[in-house]
Amino acid sequence: MSTASAASGTPAASDRLALVIGASRGLGLVLVLELLRRGHRVIATTRREGSELEAFADAWDGRLTIESLEMTSPAQLAALRDRLEGHRLDLLFVNAAIDRGDLPIGEVPTEMFTEVMVTNALSPLRAVETLDGLVAPGGTVAVMSSEQGSITRNTEDGYELYKASKAALNQLMRSYATRRADDGRTKLLIDPGHNRTALGGPDAPLAPEDSMPAVVDVLEAQAGIPGLRFLDRNGETVPW
User: What are phi and psi of 53, to 5 degrees?
Assistant: First the structure.
């Protein structure tokens, strides 16, 4: 599906085009809305019809396009790339994560391990690999990571599988960046902080409406600076 339409009182449309993978709700949804507020045109993906994102589609003067995507499907990723052929992205942002509870790693079933690793590590980088040909020279490729993926900062118990999946995501992004060290693009791993989302829980200290504008500030500040960095929402370096 593709959806777009109109709004009054929004910033004038610009030539900046962003593709946000995983925008049905939570951080991805608020990220899309913030990019739109700043004048970007945005293509945003959802897994199914009836997402929260669709409720906003009529408010943005044709600058929001919604595409269906199950990111864990290589066939759907390839089909999305084909549908977007000819577009040139200033920003490709991949947002995806699941959490299956707080089990010690020895108690994690193989099926759960596979599901979390495929969703949180393999699929985001497969999306990047599939879609990076759409990114303009000098554009930005960003992936939503987490401080939980920092090996250096893993000094407290808990959520071992989730931490491992984010560490794997970071390592795969570094491998991708190493192979493409000379392409001139900005590459970012973003730690948005602990937010009140379905994943972060109702007691998290941050609201997406506060953290996502800060994340977009970081994206804008880093645009045009080639190479890979792992940064938090304030633009501070997160240790690997």
Answer: -60, -40
